[in-house]
Amino acid sequence: MNTSCDLQLAAVRLCLDRRVLLEIDATVRAGEVLTIMGPSGSGKSSLLAFIAGFLPPAFTASGQVWLAGHNITALPAEHSRVGLLFQDPLLFPHLSVAGNLRFGLSQRATDADARIDEALQQIGLAGFARRDPATLSGGQKARVALMRLLLSQPRAVLLDEPFSKLDAGLRHDMRELVFGQLRASRLPTLLVTHDEADALDAGGQVIVL
Amino acid sequence: MMLRWMPRLIIGLLVLPITLGLLLALLPAFGYLPALGGEHVTMQHWQDLARTPGIWRSIRVSYFSGLLTTLLSLAVVLCFLAGFSGSRFDRWIRRLISPLLSLPHAAAAFGLAFLITPSGLIARWISPGLSGWQRPPDLMVGQDGYGLSLMAGLVIKEIPFLLLMALAALPQVNPGPSVMLARSLGYRSRLAWCKVVAPRLYPLLRLPVYAVLAYASSTVDVAMILGPSMPPTLSVQVVAWFNDPDLSMRFLASAGAIAQLLVTLVLLASWWLLEQLVAAIFALWVVRGGRDRGERWIALFGNVGMALAVAAAVLALLALIINSFAGWWRFPAAWPDRMGLENWLRAAPALLGPINTTLLIAGAATVIATLLTLAALEREQRLGGRPAWALWLLYLPLLVPQVAFLSGLTVTSVFFGAGPDCWLVVLGHLLLVLPYVFLTLSEAYRRLDPRWGQLARALGTSQNAVFWRVRMPLLLAPVLTAMALGLAVSISQYLPTQLLGGGRISTVTTEALALAAAGDRRLIAVWALLQAALPLLGFIVATALPRLLWRNRRGMREVH
Q: Which residues does B185 contact at the CB level (< 8 Å), separation at least 6?
């Protein structure tokens, strides 16, 4: 059953100082978005950290995370193939736009330059390869960050309020682009947000903590 | 995994040599040093020490110069910060403070001596017009018996140190809102700062303050230049005994080294008592609710004190520069009759060797310290957790008087029959470089947004690759700054080179101090300027290199 591309949270429970922060049991199917909403301190960011493999030592966790038929609970972050998008685009400031995209590609990739050009074209930034990321607009940065994520060929994606810092005008377009790309790549996606409009655009199941 | 052992390695590296050094000073102090024929425990050397003419005076000067230097420096820094508002004067001071910190103690002391001695710059500038002096006056300024010049020399160096430490700690206290609140209750701004910010800032400054106490009470190089000479301070006296060709003087020297440790410990204890007393008085003062009495005095003391200290340091540097280019210079003349390169050319043949040695030792100590620090911080990053007492251990080499543990370490070479060794000198420097490198770098490392690393790993990058491809480039500027500071600390060291090198390893600092007694000002000025210039080069590279590398990366100019 687990040979599909689902992301499965099996009886996951996060505790801090012996206090239970959250308990969750859910399956996100390929190409679908599960939205988790809740006030700050409800442990939703910690859940993402747990899945991605960065849970701070102060927390304790039980339960398992399965991705595409593999138990990734104890895998080191670089092997779990779970991609992340944060509030900030976090383009590496010491690298060019192309360098940032190259960072997402496997080091063994032989056709790197061609794939970078193609990715830039896809987001309407052809010719931006050698640019300093600091000179890009907010929306452009967000798009580069998305392409960097996709080039790393993740098997699931975690979104940590990725639209909250964008201008209101951009937000809707960006959501369409992100959800469209993730759906097209048939990736199971977990979205953590404050914003109900995010959940609406994501169009999937919603869990309120 | 090797990283796992890093903190223990660092702590061992700091604690072991110091404990060993103290132990090895303790044994000969009580007469036990078989290599020199001391086979029985005896109090003889302590009795000799107590009978040394002028020893109590030496101890008194050491104690009080430590106490008063620290009191004055701390008071000026706090009063200045109370009014720190980003005015033009404040920005000037802030800009000057880092270069002044990189000015080695010895160079600053030489410069100050050239400024204030009876034939120094100030005397020349006011003569004969204001003073009527046609010849250098017969005043004991420069090496006075009370240690006043010594304290002045220390204060102009400790003020920049404490100010920088305070500025670094200040954001943790978040002074803005509480000062605003107090002002809305009718308190004048400086009083508000002193009453609501200073009590929270001081605990963060405690370790640096203790380091200043320990340093000021036991400095050797500054005391050799500006301290009294008949008798000298305790630490200078102890070093003189160590350098005595008569090896049996080692016993007396070891007793003196332990006495220096005791003096510093007593000083730290009295400061601790003073803290309690001040805290009690302060509590009364704060609740009395005075809203403007004292405001003017705080402003006056802070600004005048700071301006004087900075001006003295800048003028001291100027005095060095003038002297190094001076030709014939009769007394009341304000400027030399002739300026030229003669002094530099005369010194040139002798400069190269010591510069080489200086850079080798400083380079080795700094590279080792940086590697150890990076490894420890990377481990902390990966495994999490840092013991709270680690900070105290890091400060250990700065709290124990150098002469106390270094003298013990020189005994090891007698024990093992090894000659003065370049590596022993590097180890001695490492003990003092490591704390500074660690303290500077750890702040930047811990402040780096953890999401950079998480993001990179989520993109499939291993821990090691994250270190090389993400953390190192992002932290290049702080790493270089920490290294420049490490170089500066090492270059300015006198005692580790002198004692552990057995007087046979010469750096620019030991050369400059060796000239101190001879009194050839122009030659001293050349060496002292060189001592000041070398660290500056490091800081210039540390500032310029990241700018050059990241000239097309605007995002690298912000702090991450």
A: B291
Neighboring chain A residues of B455 at a CB cutoff of 8 Å: 84, 86, 90
ipTM of this complex prediction, to 2 decimal places: 0.92
Sheet containing A33-37: which strands, arranged edge to edge? Answer: A82-85, A156-160, A189-193, A33-37, A206-208
Chain B residue with the nearest C-alpha to that of A132: B553
User: For strand A59-67 and strand A7-16, is the pairing parallel, antiparallel, or unpaired?
Assistant: antiparallel
Asked if the peptide bond before residue B128 counts as cis, ω within 30 degrees of 0, the response is yes
Q: Which residues of A touch B385 (CB under 8 A)?
A: 57
The two three-digit tokens of residue B125, written as one number: 């500038």
Cα–Cα distances in angstroms (integers) from residue B232 to residues A99, B178, B221, B294, in the given order: 62, 47, 12, 39
Instruction: Tell me which residue has tokens 């006043």.
Output: B148
Distance from A206 to chain B by nearest Cα, in Å? 25
Task: Round to whole Å and give the CA distance between B162 and B176.
Answer: 21
Q: Report the distance separating Cα A73 and Cα A61, nearest Å.
A: 10
For residue B169, give both structure tokens. Answer: 């700690």
DSSP, residue by residue, B42-79? -SHHHHHHHHSTTHHHHHHHHHHHHHHHHHHHHHHHHH
Site of tokens 């590496």: A92
- Cross-sheet strand order for the sheet of A59-67: A19-28, A7-16, A59-67, A70-71
Cα B320 to Cα B544: distance, rounded to the nearest angstrom: 26
Best of B454, B457, B459, B552 to mutate (most A CBs within 10 Å, chain A): B459
Check: CB of residue B442 under 8 Å from CB of residue A59: no
The model's confidence at residue A108, banded by pLDDT at 50, 70 and 90, is confident
Of A81, A90, A132, nearest to B552 by CB-CB distance is A132
Q: Which CATH number fits domain A7-208: 3.40.120.10, 3.40.50.300, 3.90.930.60, 3.30.830.10?
A: 3.40.50.300
- The top-scoring range by mean pLDDT among B354-368, B397-411, B416-430, B438-452 is B354-368
- Which residues have CB under 8 Å from A181's CB, separation 6+? A146, A150
Q: State the smallest CA–CA distance between residue A130 and chain B in angstroms.
A: 10
DSSP state, residue B419: -
Q: How far apart are CA B153 and CA B110, in angstroms?
A: 9
Q: Contact A67/A7 with Cβ under 8 angstroms?
A: yes
Across A174-183, B154-163, B330-339, B417-426, least confident range? B417-426
Q: pLDDT digits over B424-459, tens only?
A: 899 999 999 999 999 889 888 888 998 999 999 999
| Percent of chain B's residues with pLDDT above 90 | 50
Whether residue A159 contacts residue A167, with contact meaning beta carbons closer than 8 Å, is answered with: no
Map residue B494 onto helix, strand or coil. Answer: coil
Residue of B nearest to A101 (CA): B459
| Residues B81 and B291: beta-carbon distance below 8 Å | no
Q: CA–CA separation, B26 vs B49, rounded Å?
A: 14
Q: Which two tokens stand for residue A43?
A: 């442990």
Give the type of residue at A61: A
**Three-state secondary structure call for residue B186:** coil
Which of chain B's residues have a Cβ under 8 Å away from the Cβ of A104? Answer: 459-460
A-chain residues near B463 (CB < 8 A): 76, 78
3-state SS, residue B128: coil
- Structural domain boundaries in chain A: 7-208
Say how far apart CA A206 and CA B259 lie, in whole Å. 73
